[in-house]
Each structure stands twice: as structure tokens, then as C-alpha cells.
Amino acid sequence: MAASQRSIDDVVNLQQHDSLVMPRTLAGLAWMRFRRHRMAMVGLIMLGLLIAYIVIGSLVFTEAFANFNNTRIRVQPPSLEHPFGTDEIGRSILARTIYGGQISLIIALLSVLLSITIGTAIGVIAGYYGKLADSVLMRFTEAVLSLPTLLLLLVMAKFFGGRVPDLALLGRTFSGSVIVIILIIGFTSWTYLARLVRSSYLTLKEQDFVLAARALGASDRQIVLRHILPNAMAPILVAATLGIANAILQEAYISFLGLGVQAPTATWGSMMQGATGAITRGQWWLWFFPGLLIVLTVLGINFLGDGLRDALDPRSQRG
Fold it and tell me: Hey, which end of the chain has fewer CB within 10 Å, N or C?
């Protein structure tokens, strides 16, 4: 009898413990699953350190110092005075990677925000309303998807690169090519997300909770934004994180080919382009540090995207 009572007490204690440990909301469950994803936490730490490097570094070094030329110390290897060395005209590579990282991340974030807005809007309209809207928008999406993105980036960057004036914002001067790159990447990278959102809406709009909302008199706008969109956020969030990594790489590609962000604005990609001749001269520090930062940023974002995908996918076996 005593053993039986102890068993009942153990079960009650276990249930009470689970009620305290297990999250009560879907967001809490997703966060718990995300924390158990080791590589996602590694990616989060990597991105946190990179952002701290850029933010704290901009407080230590000014942009004027990053662009200051001193030919007496040109092409010097890493040292205590210049931990990342200096470039061909004596500028500190450490300071330039800090301000170049700011521009690279700004380009990535704003271009992804633009592509997420376009892709989500097209996917929502095509998936929810269907019929003619679906046919027209999906044919348009397939047409854009069939375009060679990198070639289009190169052609449009070459055509518009010198036609947009420099922009002064928050005490800094950005070359007009920054705006061009943001618009080009944003307007060419929304197609996959549009198809994902359309697929989600095609499935979700037939669910019972949507039919119940429609029966209760909810408008199409309320159903689309309040009832379906929160349930379709998983692919949007994952696409956003992975899109940031893709945008950083695309900016690096075209800057490496000399058609990206132009002086005086620096990015990690443009620094790599300026170091092309240094590869054969053994001046490894000119390309190593900006290239390393690109690799670490892309890896961190990809790890974070994998973690979000597993945390938000109810069919995942993790957690």
C-alpha cells in the first residue's frame, strides 16, 4: 500500500515538474527547441560577436580614420599597431572591416526586407484568392525565377552604378551604388519565398479555423493577416535569415568583380576586390580578414536558419 502511494506521489510530482518546465505557448516551445539546437546556438553566438565587433569597433575608430591614407605605412603585415595590417595606400584594414561590415549588413538587411515584403505580398494574394490572380502572379514569378540572377545583377549594377548620387545619412556618406545594390537584390530574390507563402496559404485557407472565422463574418483582410499569416510565419522567418546570407554573398560577388559598392564606401566584398592582385604577391592579410568575416557571417546565419527551421517545424524530431 505504501509502495502504491509512493508511485502515485511520483507521478503527481513528475506532472507538476513537467507543468513547470514545459512552455505554455507555441513561442515558448519554439524557443526551447531552438536552444537545444547546438549549431543554432553556435550561430547565434557567432552573429552576436560579429555585431559586437562592428558596433564596439565603430565607437573606437572613426570613419575618417578608416579612410585615412598614410602611404608611409602602406602594405604592412599585421602588427601590434595595426592588428589586421594596412592596405595599398596605408589604411587600417581593421577599421575598414568594421565600417565595411556595417555596409554589408545594411545592404543585406534592407534588401531582404524588400524581398520579404514583395514575396509575401505576392504569395498571399496568389494563395488566398487563387484563380486568375494565382495564374497571373505565378507566371510572373516563374518568369523572374528563370532570369539569371547574377548576370542581371552585373548588368543592372553596371548600368545604374554611376547614375545615383551619393547619400548623406546620420553623418555618413554612402555611395549611390549602395541603394542600387539594395534595390537590385531585393527585386530579384523574392521568388522562392512567394512560392512558399502561396503553398502555405493554399493549405491553411482550407483549415477549420479559417472556415470558422469566415462563418463568423471575418473579412478577407482579417483572415489573411490575423488568422493565416501567423501560422505561415515559419517559412518567412527561415527565408529571411537565409536570404541575409545570400544577399551578403551576392554583394560580395559583384563587388569582387568591380561592379558593386563604389568608393568611398567600403564593404567586405569591395575590400576583397581591392586585394585581387595581393594574392600573387603574398600579401595575404589584404584578403584574408574580410574574407574570414564573410565566411563567419554566412555560416552563423545559416546555422541560425537551420535552428529556426527545426524549432518552427512541428514535424521536426529535435527538441
Answer: N
**DSSP string for residues in 247-315:** HHHHHHHHHHTT-SSPTTS--HHHHHHHTTTHHHHT-THHHHHHHHHHHHHHHHHHHHHHHHHHHH-TT
Task: Tally DSSP H helices, then E strands, for the chain.
Answer: 15, 2
**C-alpha cell read off for 23:** 512552455
Look at domain 36-312 and name its CATH class. Answer: mainly alpha
Beta bridge partners of 169: 172
Indicate the SS3 state at residue 167: strand
Place of cell 494563395: 127
H or E segment and range at residue 72: none
Q: Is the dihedral of CA 33, 37, 40, 45 positive or negative?
A: positive
Task: Measure the CA dihedral 199/146/178/248, to 10°.
Answer: 70
**Residue 287 grid coordinates:** 584578403
Each domain of the chain, given as residue ranges in start order, spans: 1-25, 36-312
